[in-house]
């Protein structure tokens, strides 16, 4: 998330009475060094947009969804439905075991595996594999994290291993976060073109593994990478006034999973505030009512608590 964009956003939102903040990165809890070695061989130098695997999973536009990143989720074992009973689940790849993926599949759910592709986090299983030259400035607000040099072959090897891990766990897709270093004081001179090249690399790796990939934020490069991704994940497009930028991708039949972080606790967002957020997600500029973003309201900790646009509040059990 861009520091300059965030400051501008906060000033704007103070004026209209709505403040929205970015979520903390999620702790990763396991990995595999052997997968890094295996995936390293698959790293490609080409940055051309890949051709998507037609057999890979593509989430439908307007799918219901839930995102939980602060803890592993608990899937009911007694046949009862999930809470909420969403179509698609965006869950931390490392902390949720393959058995959780399998259980969600048995319930007919799609499973997106989240990991950070653009930031270094200490204490991760593969943290020791990053080199000092891979690291840039710290992330504003997250002093333990550093921007990664997404041009680095070593960084790309590590990310290829993460995508291979997602495949081995049975994930339908990956949600690689923090690819928008160009919008921040990254200390590495990263540009939008670097992100375009990197997203195309990640997408090619996902294609090689037979899984899908989404674009997380980085809305400025969406037109260039849209052919390479099968969906998008957005934070705060209502707050930034950018939801209409996603019209082309949803009109192409690709889902956009949209999160807003309101200034009130989940369950307390009502009336005009809730209506404005959800109206933005419904893309009123598009005549077809079926062409919408998949909007949820979350607290910034991205726990199991979620509020839907119909006002329903649900809490996914976590470990």
From TrEMBL:
InterPro entries: Aldolase_TIM, GH, GH114_TIM-barrel. Residues 1-21 form the signal peptide. Its EC number is 3.2.1.22. One of its GO terms (molecular function) is alpha-galactosidase activity. Residues 64-302 form the Glycoside-hydrolase family GH114 TIM-barrel domain. Keywords: Signal. It comes from the Eukaryota. It catalyses: Hydrolysis of terminal, non-reducing alpha-D-galactose residues in alpha-D-galactosides, including galactose oligosaccharides, galactomannans and galactolipids. The keyword Signal applies. SUPFAM superfamilies: (Trans)glycosidases. This is alpha-galactosidase. The lineage of its organism: Eukaryota, Fungi, Dikarya, Ascomycota, Pezizomycotina.
């Amino acid at each position: 998330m861009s520091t300059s964009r965030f400051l501008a956003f906060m000033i704007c939102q103070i004026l209209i009475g709505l403040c929205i903040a970015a979520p903390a990165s999620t702790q990763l809890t396991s990995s595999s060094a052997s997968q890094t070695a295996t995936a390293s061989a698959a790293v490609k130098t080409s940055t051309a947009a890949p051709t998507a695997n037609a057999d890979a999973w593509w989430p439908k536009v307007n799918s219901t969804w839930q995102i939980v990143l602060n803890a592993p989720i608990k899937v009911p074992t007694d046949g009862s439905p999930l809470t909420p009973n969403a179509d698609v689940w965006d869950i931390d790849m490392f902390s949720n075991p393959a058995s959780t993926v399998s259980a969600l599949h048995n319930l007919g759910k799609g499973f997106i595996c989240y990991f950070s592709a653009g930031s270094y986090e200490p204490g991760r299983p593969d943290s020791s594999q990053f080199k000092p030259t891979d690291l840039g400035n710290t992330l504003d607000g997250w002093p333990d994290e550093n921007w990664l040099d997404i041009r680095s072959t070593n960084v790309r090897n590590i990310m290829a291993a993460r995508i291979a891990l997602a495949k081995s766990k049975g994930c339908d897709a990956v949600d690689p976060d923090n690819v928008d270093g160009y919008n921040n004081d990254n200390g590495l001179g990263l540009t939008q073109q670097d992100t375009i090249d990197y997203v195309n690399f990640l997408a090619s790796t996902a294609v090689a593994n037979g899984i899908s990939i989404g674009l997380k934020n980085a809305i400025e490069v969406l037109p260039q990478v849209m052919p390479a991704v099968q969906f998008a994940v957005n934070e705060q497009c209502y707050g930034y006034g950018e939801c209409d930028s996603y019209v082309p991708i949803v009109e192409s039949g690709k889902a956009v999973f949209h999160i807003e972080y309101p200034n009130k606790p989940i369950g307390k967002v009502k009336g005009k505030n809730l209506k404005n957020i959800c109206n933005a997600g419904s893309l009123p500029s598009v005549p077809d009512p079926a062409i919408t973003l998949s909007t949820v309201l979350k607290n910034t900790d991205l726990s199991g608590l979620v509020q839907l646009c119909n006002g329903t509040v649900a809490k996914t059990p976590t470990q």
